[in-house]
């Protein structure tokens, strides 16, 4: 710490090759997942008699049970997993930040009651409840959408429900962190000054406290995305998340695991989805850790 | 202490009541009943079926009836696995799940505490960096990535361990390690952080100054204080292991309660689903209480007043 002029967080981040590498990997993955499928021949997405063909030049990742090209399936799956991960994380961010802000700012009994609830929710298998919830609401939403002739919503209702449910699961950590920060911030002078000037509570929360929390929120957003991706894959792995013919990395892994048998080694159905999933999650987690170090040099 | 225990037991009852009610209404309010097949049943038969499974009457009557049965310890009949009661199914499958969970719990805590202590004592050296890198890897890779890969390597290529199923100790090794891996990493991180803090404290210096062996200093003196954050993580750990075992049971074809849980959702088998959820939650709430009590036994500085 012999550096006289403190670096801005962005500069500190720029000095970390790991963080830069992770950003590059994620950007490349996202670009490839979004655009590469456009250049595949249409036949690759359709079932063909070429069941479980090993990797070759025509099919670099091999083919699956229905003879579809696994590379294309993996790319489409990555796309879905990333979208669900990002949207779910944003939902959890909104819930967690609002909860943490209110809890920390109000203080006293309400605060301890709100945090007690978080503690209880932490120790309950939330994913199990969400499974039931998804199942209950998915059919309701599908009926609702069908009644209004919204065909796109009927097709994607399970994904929409999934995004919201996963956001509902993963907000706890965010709420705790935001509350801790608010507790530290609210006794600072700028808050006292704002209150003395007669600003409303809502304005203090949104104008004065929230901007100071942005750094923390961004860090935990990067760390929530992989958590949501894991949850989504967990559900899809059990056959309760993304439904066929859609694919996510989790459902592809589930197909691969289901194909395990002692007679024929279909390693490509496991290795390739695993590798892409591992790469995505590792890059996100490393980036989140690097961001945390950059914004909070004390750790 | 007694007052605290009583208050916790009351809170425990309230949480369980909320869990039971939430489960019941979620299941009953989701569209579609357990007997909706492609072919419509004759009304008389459907009525008899509903009566047999106690699904007739108003929602309130069903709810109070269910609560009454639960108090008597009756989890009712499964609507899918005809003529088998939920109690029977759970009595067969729960021991399997609990064995797997307990094994993973042991692996996670022992390996995690050891790894964290190791990293802390090698702070700043290659051992620390290596251990923490391994921890980040294990946290980032969920069981459904590690599991199939582990089967591929250790069962199919090397042939050391069985592909799946349930039987002797050899069937337990891979699933327990796969289930425990991310939590070994989480505990190792917690342990490393608190051990680093503890090792800087005066009583550790005193112990060293007395000429105690390093192992005694570490495991007799420092560990007692440094392990507290790990103890408070054991509650969430148990919850995560129970949830995670659903996937691990699926990967390794283990006949535990997890498989029945997934199927009960797909089959709309309400009472089986409710039974699994209620038993899981009851287990966890009790475990959490035990953890909190263990915490106070280990750390006398803490006064129970919550």
Main traits of this protein?
heterodimer, A: 299 residues, mainly alpha, 11 helices, B: 306 residues
Secondary structure layout plus pairing:
The complex is a heterodimer of chains A (299) and B (306).
Chain A: H1 9-14, H2 17-35, H3 70-106, H4 108-122, H5 126-147, H6 151-169, H7 172-185, H8 189-196, H9 201-237, H10 249-258, H11 268-295
Helix pairs in contact in A: 2-3, 2-11, 3-4, 3-6, 3-7, 3-9, 3-10, 3-11, 5-6, 7-9, 8-9, 9-10, 9-11, 10-11
Chain B: H1 2-29, H2 43-52, H3 59-71, H4 86-121, H5 126-140, H6 143-157, H7 170-199, H8 202-209, H9 214-226, H10 228-251, H11 257-266, H12 270-298
Helix pairs in contact in B: 1-12, 4-5, 4-7, 4-10, 4-12, 5-7, 6-7, 6-10, 7-9, 7-10, 8-9, 10-11, 10-12, 11-12
Your description of this structure?
The complex is a heterodimer of chains A (299) and B (306). Chain A is mainly α and 299 residues long. Chain A contains 11 helices and no strands. The longest helix of chain A is centred in the N-terminal third of the chain and has 37 residues, at 70-106. The two termini of chain A are 13 Å apart. The mean pLDDT of chain A is 80. Chain B is mainly α. Chain B is 75% helix and 0% strand. Chain B contains 12 helices and no strands.
């Amino acid at each position: 710490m012999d550096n006289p002029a403190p670096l801005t967080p962005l500069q500190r981040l720029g000095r970390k090759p790991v963080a830069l590498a992770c950003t590059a990997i994620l950007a490349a993955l996202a670009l490839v997942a979004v655009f590469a499928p456009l250049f595949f021949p249409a036949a690759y997405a359709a079932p063909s008699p070429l069941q479980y063909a090993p990797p070759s030049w025509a099919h670099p990742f091999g083919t699956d049970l229905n003879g579809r090209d696994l590379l294309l399936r993996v790319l489409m799956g990555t796309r879905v997993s990333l979208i669900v991960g990002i949207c779910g994380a944003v939902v959890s961010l909104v819930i967690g930040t609002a909860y943490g802000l209110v809890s920390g700012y109000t203080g006293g009994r309400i605060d301890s009651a709100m945090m007690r609830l978080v503690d209880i929710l932490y120790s309950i298998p939330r994913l199990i409840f969400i499974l039931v919830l998804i199942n209950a609401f998915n059919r309701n939403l599908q009926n609702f959408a069908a009644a209004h002739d919204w065909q796109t919503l009927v097709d994607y209702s399970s994904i929409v429900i999934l995004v919201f449910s996963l956001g509902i699961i993963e907000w706890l950590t965010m709420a705790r962190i935001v509350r801790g920060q608010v507790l530290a911030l609210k006794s600072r002078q700028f808050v006292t000054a704002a209150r003395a000037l007669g600003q409303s509570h809502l304005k203090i929360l949104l104008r004065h406290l929230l901007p100071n929390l942005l750094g923390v929120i961004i860090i935990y957003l990067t760390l929530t995305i992989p958590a949501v991706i894991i949850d989504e894959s967990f559900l899809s792995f059990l056959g309760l998340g993304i439904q066929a013919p859609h694919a996510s990395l989790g459902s592809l892994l589930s197909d691969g695991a289901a194909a395990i048998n002692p007679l024929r080694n279909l390693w490509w159905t496991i290795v390739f989805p695993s590798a892409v999933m591992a790469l995505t999650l590792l890059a996100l987690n490393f980036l989140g850790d690097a961001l945390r170090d950059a914004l909070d040099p004390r750790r | 202490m007694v007052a605290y225990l009583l208050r916790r037991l009351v809170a425990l009852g309230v949480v369980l009541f909320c869990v039971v009610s939430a489960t019941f209404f979620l299941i009953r309010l989701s569209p579609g009943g357990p007997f909706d097949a492609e072919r419509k049943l004759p009304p008389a038969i459907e009525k008899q079926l509903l009566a047999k499974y106690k699904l007739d009457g108003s929602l309130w009557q069903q709810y109070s009836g269910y609560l009454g049965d639960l108090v008597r310890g009756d989890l009712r009949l499964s609507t899918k696995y005809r003529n088998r009661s939920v109690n029977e199914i759970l009595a067969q499958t729960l021991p399997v799940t609990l064995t797997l969970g307990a094994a993973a719990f042991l692996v996670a805590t022992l390996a995690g505490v050891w790894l964290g202590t190791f990293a802390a004592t090698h702070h700043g050296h290659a051992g620390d960096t290596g251990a923490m890198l391994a921890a980040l890897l294990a946290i980032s890779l969920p069981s459904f990535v590690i599991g199939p890969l582990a089967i591929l390597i250790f069962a199919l290529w090397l042939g050391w361990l069985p592909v799946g199923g349930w039987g002797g100790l050899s069937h337990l090794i891979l699933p327990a390690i796969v289930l425990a891996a991310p939590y070994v990493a989480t505990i190792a991180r917690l342990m490393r952080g608190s051990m680093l803090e503890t090792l800087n404290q005066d009583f550790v210096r005193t112990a060293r100054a007395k000429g105690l062996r390093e192992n005694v200093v570490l495991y007799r003196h420092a560990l007692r204080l440094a392990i507290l954050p790990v103890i408070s993580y054991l509650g969430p750990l148990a919850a995560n292991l129970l949830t995670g075992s659903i996937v691990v049971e699926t990967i390794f074809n283990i006949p535990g309660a997890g498989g029945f849980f997934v199927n009960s959702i797909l089959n709309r088998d309400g009472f089986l689903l409710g039974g699994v959820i209620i038993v899981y939650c009851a287990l966890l709430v009790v475990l959490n209480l035990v953890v909190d009590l263990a915490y106070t036994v280990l750390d006398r500085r803490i006064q129970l007043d919550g």
